[in-house]
Amino acid sequence: MYRKNAALLITVGLLCALEYLQAGMIAFASAPIRGEIDASPEEFTLVAALYACIAVVVISKQRWLVERLGWRNFMLGSISIYVLGAFVCGVSSDLTAFTAGRVVMALGGASFMTSARLMVNFLPAGPGRFTGVKVFATGLASGTASAPFISSMVVVEDTWHAIFWVLIGGALVAAMLCTRFLPTAPAPLEDRTPSSPANILLLSVSSFFLLYVLQRSYYDFYNETFILVAFALLAALGMYIFFHAEHSKHAPFLKVRDLMQPRYVLGVALFCFTYVVLGSNNYILPYFLQTGLGYSWDTIGTFQAFGLGGALVTWLAMAALIPKFPGPKKFFVLGFAALISFGCLLSSVTTDANMWSNILPALFLNGCFVMLVLATAAMQTFRDVTHHDTLFAHAYQIKSMLGQIAMAMGTAVATLFLQWRTTLQYNNLNGHFAAGDPLYMEQTQHLAQALTAQAGAGPANQIALSTLAQSLHQQSTLVASMEYFWAVIVVAIIALGVSVAQKTFK
């Protein structure tokens, strides 16, 4: 099986890995990249919103384009556009060029993961197709685990452009392999799905505003709450109108009506929930480790890679167990139990926490959660729609579109929570930062005395004040992060209860 379909299997794994690599590397290295291209956080937010918006539209059109271009032309065209966009990003030195590159990358590569999963159906049903699913999941786990390590290494070496050379290399290999097995013929005219330009425009505008408002909420939510919530609701209404219109059509662009089955609806809800948690954790963890615990960028990247390697280890164990014990409920229970344990381990850390004994086990459990829930959901959600290629394609497209929004929502929720709790904890701790406070006076005098011999009396007092201010910020971040992990515990316990009680995935 592996030798006969080697080109297909490698392409499936590679395309899936590329999707998670590009998302993970650029998210992890966003701060250094912003500095290099002279972009403010708000401007970088617009770039992220543009990419996600284009991704939603491109994913929605994936099957429509394949039917008209044929698989080989579609993939080679997509990879060519993606490589062009990555090259522009790789040589960019300012915000305009970087934005153009990311837009072009989205046009070409946003559908990579969707296409990879649909390629698995080229394999015959049964053990052969399960082999394809295993390779797909291995690519997901490998890309997820590798992203923080690679991005931290290239940033430390001051070569952030190398992120895009890595992506170009992987994409070119995928293009060469695609010529080996992909069919060239377009779909017959009678089998092609129609498209509505008005509906696509509605999807584009609604998804952009929804994603942009989510991104803008990082900076303006507490000042412009009403405006942001109003625009988010309008954008969500636009998304609802799009899906409602597709549901009502006799010949829809996406077969929403045929997908309204309990298994699929619950599975997509589970996907979205997991993506929200994943987006939140991906934002919190680097900030917590760097600002709250004071670890260096390369150390964080290396240990996050080790931790996310838990996803790969978990998948290898699952691949061995699933043929003998296919019931999904136990995997969901184990996944949410891993998330609870992840929260428990990080909800009580202190500034002297050891990376190996205190942090790495939690990061490993986070990787276990991701794979136990996502991989199991992927195998169960689409079980009732695999009998029809177009229906399965539309099912996966909708899941991927909503996944883009859910990840952005998770990042927004984590950002707002951290801003709220850090400000509150800072104000609480700042009450001691006053000249008449005995603890403040004691710490200031202690630090000044220790520094006087090296810096002199005047500078020693200034350094002592600066050190205490830095410590105040670190402590407020640490306490706010611990509160976030307690919130994760509560949410995971509720999800665990739901997974035990539900009857759809037994």
Structure at a glance:
With about 500 residues, the protein is mostly helical.
Structural class: mainly alpha
What is the general shape? globular
Instruction: Outline the low-pLDDT stretches.
Output: none
Head-to-tail CA distance between termini: 30 Å
Largest sheet: none
Mean pLDDT: 86
How many β-strand runs? 0
Would you give the CATH topology of the largest domain?
Growth Hormone, Chain: A
Strand content: under 5%
CATH class of the largest domain: Mainly Alpha
Q: What oligomeric state best describes the polypeptide chains here? A: single chain
What percent of the residues sit in helical stretches (DSSP H or I)?
A: over 70%
Rg, Å, rounded: 24 Å
**SSE ordering:** HHHHHHHHHHHHHHHHHH
Count of domain modules: 3
Helix tally equals 18
What is the architecture of the largest domain at the second tier of CATH? Up-down Bundle
Describe the structure.
- With 506 residues, the protein is an all-alpha fold.
- The protein folds into three domains: 1-183, Growth Hormone, Chain: A; 194-253; 272-506, Growth Hormone, Chain: A (Up-down Bundle).
- The longest helix has 45 residues, at 457-501.
- The chain has helices at residues 6-28, 30-37, 41-60, 62-69, 71-91, 95-109, 112-119, 127-156, 162-181, 197-220, 225-248, 262-292, 297-321, 329-346, 355-381, 389-430, 438-455, 457-501.
- It is built from 18 helices and no strands.
- Helix content is 80%, strand content 0%.
